[in-house]
Amino acid sequence: MEGSGDIVRSQAFLDAFLRGRTGRTRSAYQIDIEDFARYIEESPAAAVARLLLGGDPVAGRRLALDYAVELVRAGRAPATVGRRLGTLRTLSREAHRVGLVAEAPDIPTEEEAASAAADRGTAAHYLFPRHPAEIDRLDVQHYALREALDGNYRAPIDSPRRILDVGCGTGQWGFELCAEFPEAHVAGLDLVPGKIDRPTRYSYVKGNILHGLPFRDGLFDFVHQRFLVVGIPLAYWPAEVADLARTARPGGWVELVEVRIQVEPAGPAIGRLVELAKGLAQALGLDTTGVVADSIDRYLREAGLRSVERRDFDLPVGLWAGRVGELMATDLRAGFTRTCEVLHAHSRLPIEEGIDLIQEASAEFERHHTLVRCAYAFGRKPL
């Protein structure tokens, strides 16, 4: 949140900016500025201070781009998106002209906003925003799951030749399947590419899960998907699992691994962080009550699969639980950090409070012997 001095300076700048306009032009500028302020969930003066006076023009541009993407996703007319961005651009240039800022943020164009909205695709619903550290977090999560489940899968697969990993993240799971099955080809589908150094029998496929899988029917011997409760809205799940089943060959297997946004036993800091994460997830239409984890076996049956098996399991969090607990503590700290960064960017959580909560949560992992509730299920497509 900007300081009171910046807000006072921003208010004076806005007053002078609007005094120089009359009639419809002034009214249009006021509407655009108020809409931007609603997105920030601050007063117009505080919102403009965030945009212009944060001291980092790159961060100001990123904030304007995030706002523009939300306008596109909300279905605003291109003319409206263009006008709102034009207002921010005029404010930016005027702030530089009058000496309010030494370097003004470069406000994106309408075309850049449309391109960014299309590129983010499924990420529009992903709880954790794209971040360089996300690759590390996903790998840590992978190693914890592999150790906790004593392997990379639980379905009774036998020498698969074609494997699909949906929501592949870094690609590490698929890389290890390539090593385990030397004759297999693994396709990893995600909106964003993971690691660049891939095995020769691994193919990254860019795709938006919510738009359907770009593969023909019955192509894969084994279809795998895990921990996408943080990226697929609750309403999409039955159809999405049916699409997974569609791509499996007769006799092939589909496996799901899912997590509940539920961390317990929990102290006050863990509880607060989980509630903050749930608030973000709910706003994205994601499951916050464990419905998906409770229903994965039902989704598989409804998709026509047979021999469905399910198991609930817990992932321990903290040094008290050895290697798996250490990995999961790292995973949760990173996830909570991303959550706090998002909330701070929208002025909903002071950064200092977020840091304190994460530090206290780390201590609570040890005091309470915290667990993350998970489940897996697999089923076979009829011959």
Molecular structure report:
The longest helix has 24 residues, at 322-345. The protein is globular. Helix 8 (172-180) links the parallel strand 1 (162-166) and strand 2 (185-190). The model has no long low-confidence stretch (mean pLDDT 90). A seven-stranded mixed β-sheet has the order 3-2-1-4-5-7-6, with helices on both faces. It has helices at 4-19, 23-40, 44-52, 57-73, 78-97, 110-120, 134-148, 172-180, 237-247, 268-283, 291-302, 322-345, 351-368; strands spanning 162-166, 185-190, 202-206, 220-226, 248-264, 306-316, 371-380. It has two domains: 4-120, Orthogonal Bundle (DNA polymerase, domain 1); 134-380, 3-Layer(aba) Sandwich (Rossmann fold). It is 51% helix and 16% strand. With 383 residues, it is an alpha/beta fold. It starts with a helix and ends with a strand. It is built from 13 helices and seven strands. Helix 1 crosses helix 3 (44-52) and helix 2 crosses helix 3 (44-52).
